[in-house]
Amino acid sequence: MNNRSAALMIQGTTSDAGKSITVAGLCRVLKRRGYSVAPFKPQNMALNSAVTASGGEIGRAQALQAFACDLQPHIDFNPVLLKPSGDQRSQVILHGKAVSHLEARSFGSIKQLAFQSVLESYQRLQQQYDFVIIEGAGSPAEINLRKNDIANMGFAEAVNCPVALIGDIDRGGVFAHLIGTLKLLSPSEQNRVIGFIINKFRGNLDLLQGGLDWLTDYSQKPLFGVLPYLHDLRLDAEDAIRIDPNSKGDIVIKVPVLSRISNHTDFDPLAAHPDVRLEFVRSGDSLDGADLIILPGSKNVRAEMQHLIDNGWDQQIKRHCRYGGKLLGICGGYQLLGNRIDDPQGIEDTAGSVTALGLIEMHTELLPNKQLKQVSGQFAIGDLQGALSGYEIHCGQSHGAALQYAFAQITDQQGNCYNDGVVSDDQQIIGTYLHGLFEHAECLNQLIHWISGKASSHKIHHWDHTRREQLDRLADCFEQHLNIDQMIEHAAAGITNH
């Protein structure tokens, strides 16, 4: 279009209002219309992340948005990622690499630390693409955060881009959310809001028309559209755990929801498999009755051992194994299977060690250099055969006699070959550092065979096939229910001419 791309920022009245999905859908629409388009989120706070081909780390939602644009994940799509390791502490990922930890009282310094990097990433994208679709974070009306904001209006004002404000009607009070948010903005920020989107509407739109007319009359801003509630939309969540209501198979898999659970998007393909009933087990509930228990990843793995004990899950897991149940530990969950986890440098929390479950003869030491790799390889376990693929995001190195019985033989994007994980002598327990295992159709069916002892009769696709179908479903919905042409016109014109 020109040397400077068109831009549109999607900001929300609340967290989980639909910003991530809206950016993904708009990216897909524009890509299908023949534009080159890239996603951008200046600052993200999430425990679901993805690895780029260059070995960087970005938010999982931005990896999905890149996929919607037919692009590989890139560190410029999410230059700042905050990964909470406790209620008062977050790891700071800057341009894909961990650079520091911030205490909650120091979050205001993130602007000084990172805003120049944010602007550099955005400028590079502007030079490469026709459109940049930008996602805000939380709400722009969070008064206590506005002084040092680089995620919402602080960014939009700095780069002079228009903003569309989205509200979730399924929560209730959407008109108050939209107008209340608008009123809490400064005059220049209010002027920057070019229109509204209402998300997750159920029912007869005619019954909403009076409210829609009031909204546009009162605000003197257009409504770009009302998006319907899309049931069973199977796309990577930014952070919130979403339960798939169709997960009703005969194989019962239970995942304890750890206090700092990370990359739970690992389990989306399992939830969609016809043979599987996947259950996320919350504090106070039981892991009993599972064919497979999966210990997921976590951003604070030593603290999770106490979380297991507090819920009685440690004893339930050990009883499950004694009675012949299968157990899979992924990343931090893998580390919990061993005898001990050491953090001598305070990588995730205060320095120290913790006694782990003691189910596998190994121990883990947390180290400063985070492993960020995309990998592929082959099973090294018993009867399981065929290819697998995934990615690694971890600070720990595991050692011990059990590791001579590896789970997989893999190669990373640099061509390095090595063994991953561990398998117990009786093949009832597997530990692995690999996220994304279930996305590979052949690998998923092999693991279903390991759990149940029989092959699945269902034909399944690689999870990217499902992602593509769901993104096209989302784009079709947007084409029908949003005034895309009007939004493109505003984005191309910029804020001064709207």
From TrEMBL:
Output one GO MF annotation.
ABC-type vitamin B12 transporter activity
* Presence of the UniProt keyword Hydrolase in the record: no
- Give a single Pfam family match: GATase_3
| CobB/CobQ-like glutamine amidotransferase domain mapped to chain residues | 253-441
Kindly give the CDD domains that the UniProt entry links to this protein. Answer: CobQ_N (cd05389), GATase1_CobQ (cd01750)
Entry keywords, A to Z: Cobalamin biosynthesis, Glutamine amidotransferase
- Give the gene name: cobQ
Keyword Ribosomal protein tagged: no
Q: Which GO terms describe its biological process?
A: cobalamin biosynthetic process
Report the protein name in the record.
Answer: Cobyric acid synthase
Per the record, the pathway is: Cofactor biosynthesis; adenosylcobalamin biosynthesis
Q: Report the sequence similarity comment from the record.
A: Belongs to the CobB/CobQ family. CobQ subfamily.
The active site is formed by 331 (nucleophile), 435
User: Domain named CobQ/CobB/MinD/ParA nucleotide binding: which ranges?
Assistant: 8-236
This molecule's function is given as: Catalyzes amidations at positions B, D, E, and G on adenosylcobyrinic A,C-diamide. NH(2) groups are provided by glutamine, and one molecule of ATP is hydrogenolyzed for each amidation.
